[in-house]
Design brief:
The protein is 39% helix and 14% strand. The longest helix has 14 residues.
């Protein structure tokens, strides 16, 4: 598969970040052993809107979240105004001819940094990327934004490669969402166990639906867990209850 509309990563100037809100160690200290809540709603979802996501992030903070994961510069900026928690920013953008859509280009990462993100999340799977291979892209994003990178991966080899390329955080986000990773309904705790101690900071994400599963991910070796739909997508929560009553 070939990604179309490739935009060269060269020539993107770095963001004048001044003094960063959080160092990498600050973020690790903040989220270690804790919960990160993903506050996202796509345009077709009932809670779509930056103001709603900002309130959702504030509710997550009140509930004990240590950081927020947010989609689009608009949502990042709104959440930045609502909470002082570290923000993992991503931008889901469809690129013609590509399966990669989580922060696919340097320009998207730079916009997230300018909006107030503290970490840039990007797709680090072994699939064609619009701006070169994963190692080149991670380096380009770090250089352009001055921010640490969270690499969303789906396999052990991808996690090791992203870590070796300089990603400060590695998350199991994409396991089950690439055709070559395990297609399972539960969190991929085998991947968490395999990567334990092998990457700088490991985060478990993906299909974590209960507090017990979140606890199990920490026990398996994750430094933190990210939970999204089970907390912030009420239509999914309602559907589970409705299904149980049929």
């Amino acid at each position: 598969m070939v990604c179309l509309d490739r935009v060269p990563s060269g020539g993107v100037s770095s963001v004048d970040m001044g003094t960063l809100r959080y160092s990498v160690q600050d973020i690790i200290d903040q989220i270690y052993g804790g919960l990160v809540v993903s506050c996202q709603a796509l345009p077709e979802e009932p809670l779509h809107g930056s103001a709603i996501m900002a309130r959702m992030a504030l509710a997550a903070q009140v509930g004990g979240a240590r950081a927020i994961r947010a989609n689009t510069p608009e949502d990042v900026a709104a959440i930045r105004e609502a909470t002082s928690l570290p923000i993992i920013g991503l931008w889901k953008v469809v690129v013609p001819g590509c399966d990669v859509y989580i922060t696919p280009r340097v320009q998207h990462a730079r916009a997230l940094a300018e909006a107030g993100a503290d970490i840039i999340a990007l797709d680090a799977t072994d699939r064609p990327h619009p701006e070169g291979n994963v190692a080149e892209y991670i380096a380009a994003v770090r250089a352009a934004t001055g921010l640490p990178v969270l690499a969303d991966i789906s396999t052990y080899d991808e996690g090791i490669a992203a870590n070796n390329a300089g990603a400060e955080f590695v998350s199991t986000t994409m396991s089950g969402y690439t055709p070559y990773s395990p297609q399972i309904e539960d969190p991929d705790l085998d991947l968490v166990r395999a990567l334990r101690g092998k990457v700088s900071f490991l985060i478990a994400e993906g299909r974590i639906s209960t507090p017990a599963q979140a606890r199990a991910a920490i026990d398996a070796g994750a430094g933190a867990v990210i939970v999204g739909g089970a907390i912030t997508r009420p239509q999914q929560i309602a559907a589970r209850f409705a299904k149980a009553l049929v």
